[in-house]
Write a structure and sequence with these properties.
This protein has 634 residues and is an alpha/beta fold. The chain has three domains: 1-6 and 14-195 and 334-357, Up-down Bundle (ABC transporter transmembrane region fold); 197-310; 376-628, Rossmann fold (3-Layer(aba) Sandwich). Helices cover 63% and strands 10% of the residues. The chain is built from 24 helices and ten strands. The chain has helices at residues 12-15, 27-35, 41-51, 55-86, 94-143, 146-151, 154-195, 197-203, 207-244, 246-252, 255-307, 313-354, 415-422, 445-451, 466-470, 479-488, 492-497, 515-528, 545-558, 571-574, 594-600, 603-611, 613-616, 620-628, and strands at residues 376-386, 389-399, 404-408, 430-435, 438-439, 452-455, 533-537, 563-567, 579-584, 587-592. The strands form two sheets. The protein has a six-stranded mixed beta sheet with strand order 6-7-8-3-9-10, with helices on both faces. A four-stranded antiparallel beta sheet has the order 2-1-4-5. It is elongated. The protein starts with 11 loop residues before the first helix and ends in a 6-residue tail after the last helix.
Length: 634
């Protein structure tokens, strides 16, 4: 494998040279601010760090571009020499003509070889760059702190991983070709002035007019392009929102209204893009007209000079070739300007992501314990997501190894935040979180993931087989272990009824299963991991009563010897807990068993009466009968 397959991560000092642009207002406002920059030295410098492994390829590509350009400049000179020296009027030199033909064939062959090498080298380098940028962004997003993910729209990240990376790839390709365009442009000017300064000066007299047109055209075109970009973003946002909310749209009968709103945005998008297209296309006839004017100057004035014997006919033919090619690099460089604008904006957004600070990092001396006893302790923990707004305030409690503790409280009391700190998704502001006798900041995050299994309220399944999803956290688990875990949580029966059983491919997010079935698979995934600590965050809220009771019976066996931290609003999940901790406004207000808390007639008792009383009225015998009846009476 080539050594040119990896790209070094930017040095931290480089990341701090210029902080990421602050997000003020909408993302569209930020894009517009960036779109006006045709060249951003900071972005280019960061971009070059990813090109360092490919400097040999880039040098080869530049050499090929220059060779291709030189051959383009040489071909008209060969034609001119052949006409003036080999095709002399009345005395054609056949041998010299054959020599010119051979030279012409050699230059054309070199031109083709250089063009092929240029295209393949630049294309391969650009594809490798795309791979490196996308890999760097993905790798960083895998370890970035959840505090960043909580505040960032998934759509924006996907846009940066896809469209923005392509913009930088396009910039690399066009930049190398732009070198050839610049050399060709100045080369044509130099050759024409050297062949005949007078005719060359007259031919180039149309260039100031082109520059004047560009000066007038550029600000108007930029405004049109920005308006088209804003309208396109608005349409994409409306489309994504309507697709995700289609169920609510159909439920509320908003189809016609939403279609009208979307049509208005789409029509504005159409009009702005038509305007942008006009500004793009208006340059083509102008350049073509100027090209025709320059060729007319060569034909009229050059023809007169040929008739007066003051100019060789070969020189005039060469001028026609050069004039025909002169405006091609101008067209390319005009497009390059827009490409550079897009690339500078894209580069800024990409490097904003790769420069996001990873707030939760492993300490240099972090331990990786092979086994833990499962004990959990909070010591004076204060934590929040925004400065000055604590979610947990001076929380202290202990969970003994093998103990099941339930966290109860109103919405916003800090229950989920407590479990997130156990896994060290965030770092505490004050105090300590102790897992297995060690501060979570003193052990590796990988070890916490190995020893703690979490089941959330909204199960997330991947587009893979059921078996692969169950052993997602434990890739080495055997089929027998997968089946045992599925059987323990009551998922084996419905899996067996599927046409392909455990080999059934799941749709995106497991959409071909019911919500309860997806939750059972997430339970099986947590259990097959055989972690010492099990965290259940509203894990049974999405299943029916029969399934919940079946899970409770399985957990009663499987939690033996394991520590469990449970968040639930439904009594069936809490009933088997050894202890219940009641939270309110980020503080512990009550603690004890279910019976003791009911007797205390505090917050827990009030929550119980509001939410659990009707469920608790069902006699245990009726619940057992519901289980034996297959849940049909529940």
């Amino acid at each position: 494998m080539s050594t040119e397959t990896t790209s070094p991560a930017p040095h931290p000092s480089e990341q701090q040279e210029r902080p990421p642009l602050a997000v003020v207002g909408s993302q569209i406002d930020q894009d517009e601010e960036l779109f006006g920059r045709a060249f951003d030295p900071w972005v280019v410098k960061r971009f070059l760090t990813y090109l360092t492994p490919y400097k040999t390829r880039i040098a080869l590509g530049v050499a090929a571009v220059l060779t291709f350009t030189v051959t383009q400049l040489t071909i008209p000179l060969i034609v001119r020499a052949a006409i003036d020296h080999a095709l002399v009027e009345g005395a054609t030199d056949i041998d010299l003509l054959h020599w010119f033909i051979a030279v012409f064939a050699g230059v054309v062959t070199l031109n083709y070889a250089a063009n092929h090498l240029m295209e393949t080298t630049v294309s391969k380098t650009a594809q490798n760059l795309l791979f490196d940028l996308r890999r760097a962004m993905y790798a960083h997003l895998q370890v970035v702190s959840l505090s960043f993910m909580d505040k960032t729209e998934v759509g924006r990240l996907m846009s940066r991983l896809q469209g923005d990376v392509y913009a930088l790839q396009e910039f690399l390709e066009s930049s190398i070709f732009a070198i050839g365009d610049i050399v060709l442009l100045f080369g044509i000017v130099a050759v024409m002035l050297s062949l005949d300064p007078a005719l060359g000066g007259l031919t180039l007299s149309v260039v100031p007019l082109l520059l004047l047109v560009r000066i007038i055209w550029l600000p108007l075109a930029r405004k049109a392009f920005m308006a088209a970009r804003e309208a396109s973003s608005s349409v994409n946002g409306a489309l994504a929102e309507n697709v995700h909310g289609i169920r609510a749209i159909q439920e509320l009968g908003r189809e016609d209204v939403n279609f009208g709103l979307f049509e208005a945005k789409a029509r504005r998008n159409l009009l702005t893009h038509l305007t942008a297209s006009k500004f793009t296309n208006v340059m083509i006839p102008i350049v073509d007209t100027l090209t025709g004017s320059a060729m007319a100057i060569v034909i009229v004035l050059g023809g007169s000079m040929v008739l007066d014997r003051s100019l060789d006919i070969g020189v005039m033919v060469a001028f026609l070739f050069y004039v025909q090619r002169f405006f091609d690099p101008i067209r390319s460089l005009t497009l390059q300007y827009s490409i550079m604008q897009r690339a500078m904006a894209a580069g800024q957004r990409i490097f904003e992501v790769t420069d996001v600070d990873v707030e939760v990092r492993d300490a240099p001396d972090a331990e990786d314990p092979a086994e833990i006893d499962g004990a959990i302790e909070f010591r004076g923990v204060t934590f929040g997501y925004e400065p000055g707004k604590p979610v947990l305030q001076d929380i202290s409690f202990k969970v003994a190894p093998g103990e099941t503790v339930a966290l109860v409280g109103p919405t916003g009391s800090g229950k989920t935040s407590t479990t997130a700190l156990v896994h060290r998704f965030y770092d505490v502001w004050q105090g300590e979180v102790i897992v297995g006798g060690r501060d979570v900041r003193a052990v590796t995050q990988h070890s916490l993931g190995r020893h703690i299994a979490m089941v959330l309220q909204e199960p997330f399944l991947f587009s893979a087989t059921i078996e692969e999803n169950i052993r997602y956290a434990t890739a080495g688990a055997s089929h027998e272990q997968v089946v045992a875990a599925a059987t323990a949580v009551g998922a084996h029966d419905f899996i067996s009824r599927l046409p392909k059983g455990y080999a059934t491919e799941l749709d995106q997010r497991g959409a071909n299963l019911s919500l309860g079935q997806r939750q059972l698979l997430s339970f099986a995934r947590a259990l097959v991991a055989d972690a010492r600590i099990l965290v259940l965050d509203e894990a049974t809220a999405s299943v029916d009563s029969y399934t919940e009771l079946e899970i409770q019976r399985a957990l009663a066996r499987l939690l033996e010897g394991r520590t469990a931290l449970v968040i639930a609003h439904r009594l069936a999940t809490i009933r088997g807990a050894d202890r219940i901790i009641v939270l309110q406004d980020g503080r512990i207000v009550e603690e004890g068993s279910h019976d003791a808390l009911i007797a205390a007639n505090g917050l827990y008792a009030r929550l119980y009466r509001m939410n659990y009383a009707s469920f608790d009225d069902i006699p245990p015998e009726e619940l057992e009968r519901a289980l034996s009846d297959g849940g049909q009476r529940t």
